[in-house]
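Hi L.,

You mentioned the student needs an example of a multi-chain input paired with its predicted structure. This one should do, with 729 residues in total across all chains.
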Amino acid sequence: MLKVIKSLTSFVAMVAVLFVFTTETMAAKKSKTLKNTQKKGFVRCGVSQGLPGFSNADASGNWTGVDVDVCRAVAAAVLGDANKVKFTPLSAKERFTALTSGEIDILSRNTTWTLSRDADIGLTFVGVNFYDGQGFMVRKSSGITSTSQFKSGISACTNIGTTTELNMRDFFNSKGISYEPVAFEKADEVVAAYDAGRCDTYTTDKSGLAAQRTKLSNPDDHIVLPETISKEPLGPVVRQGDSVWEDIVRWSLNVMIEAEEYGINSGNADSMKTSENPAIKRLVGAEGELGAAFGLDNDWSLRIIKQVGNYGESYKRNIADTGILPDRGPNQLWTKGGILYVPPAR
Amino acid sequence: MNFKARKIIPQLITVLVVVLIFGFFTFNAQINMDNRGIQFGFGFLTQESSFDVQFSLIDYDGSHSYARAYLVGLLNTLLVAFIGILISTILGVIIGIARLSPNYLIERSAAFYVEFFRNIPLLLQIFFWYFAALRALPLPQDADPMLGVFYLTIKGLYTPSFVWENFDIFLYSIIAVIISIIVIKNYAKKLQENQGKQLPVLYISIGLFIILPLITFLIGGVSLDFEFPVIKQLSTTGFIYEGGLSIPPELIALTLALSLYTATFIAECVRAGIQGISKGQKEAAASIGLTPNQVLKLVIMPQALRIIIPPTTNQYLNLTKNSSLAAAIAYPDLVLVFAGTALMQTGRAIEIVSITMLTYLSISLAISMLMNWYNKKIAIKEK
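Structure written out for the whole complex:
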């Protein structure tokens, strides 16, 4: 009898151990990137070499910007602290190699989502955190107020390795205008060359133009033309092959946008736990088990909202208040006339 | 047998280790690329590149293939290397000789030049020449013509271009001139060896160079016209020159920086070469009545060249490789066009980087071979 009880308990213990072990390994097996990130204690994030409003380091090395906030949101979700991010500044040329080679785990660097990038080179785009389009900046003194006034022989400064070069060709070709592309490796040199008068126009994403304009010696002497010649949905990118990590990044971004939609911000997030609305309660972790699907606790989304804020706060802090693009344009919620529309977090 | 085995086994092991290391990396790269869903292949080279390049020696636009874009970059790199080597050699020889000048001022200025330019990082010099020049140069509408037809502006140097008719006939006449000069030179050498007479080869050559092409103009139907750059208004304050030849400021700044930098090293090679020849040679040559020019040309230089050529080859290689810094100032060289834009658009990092590496290797080996051949030619021939 004693022997039976003994063997029974050992059997139960074994099953229990096995059960604990398998659930543990299942959660861990789901995402190698998540496991590595938690082991390291920081999120490895690739950003630009300095684009005000998107990812820009101040004098003491603190990174700010809407692209930076995506990585901070992920850090808040998986590590509990939005500051546990290691930022790696990357040129347009280096960015995809850095991601595919595993040097970084998130690329949040004003990167345009295109078919060939998504399908061809081992990358997965997880969403859009800024809807942009390519435009042109010219000197006010030139008298040009529209791209229809461009004439053959115009020289255009830009960056290499971006969709900009391709759009520019399509645009000028369709208008039958011959042009001189002057393409630099780094944005700072583009600004310097345009500022010196090497080029008649500076072309890149409109947000980029607005941001770089602040770096010119006399920003008021330049205007961004109204025309937009391309669609540039900018968003964070992850490596192909880790779908759980992909989901974590995607939903960290979505939570920020949905939080704005429901009026939850960093200030009122805690008090929203007692809200009547189940959608709000789910977002602040008072209802449902949303985090479990990723292998995270239930407060992951609350931490994002509390530590980073909702999308509107991030936009205001980084882009509107810095005078880059005070008008949110298409980057407004769908309920307010914009095109920000994310699937429901439920 | 034992001795033979002892000789072979270490070599076999070395080869095996090298093969294993390369095999390991290739295998690793393959596994990693498979895991990340990256394909390997060179098929992309035939695809349409769909990006334009600022400056090209051959006909190119975005409708051409990536292979053509590669060629554009390669030719632009070779152009910079060629001009750079030419200027830095001329400058280097002058400075090198100036450093040995008995004139204190000349010697000191040459020394200052060398110490100044070789001790500042090259990238910094490229930036300096590019941005300093950009800031200093006038806008096209404010530019005063130099010699009436050259316009040096912030958007580039505009010069008249040649418009030829029957250019081939002119080219044949030049070839004829070169062949006849070689024949005359050989004849003059024989004449001097046999009868001790000297022919004024230089004057005859110059005469031929003027007379023969002139004949093609007068009766050969060759004509040469100039197309002058004409200013064109793009907007209220935007102007550009059209027609003629335009040389982008990026090319000018890059060749200037590379040449000035490399010339300092070549100058030191030249100085070392000349100083390496013992004083007795010079004194002996002078004692048999050679003029100082003849001493330098016939006695010192032929010996000094043997010392100068090998280290100068290194400098040529350095200049060619350093030209890849072009990417920083938007000169469309191989690195900017192919390892930059093309790499980004296709995402084929491994393929493109290996092609680029092989290309630089080939260029360097070609320069090396050429210089080694020249070095052998001027080496002491044991009789």
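You could point out the following to them. DSSP finds eleven helices and seven strands in chain B. The mean pLDDT of chain B is 88.

Best wishes,
N.
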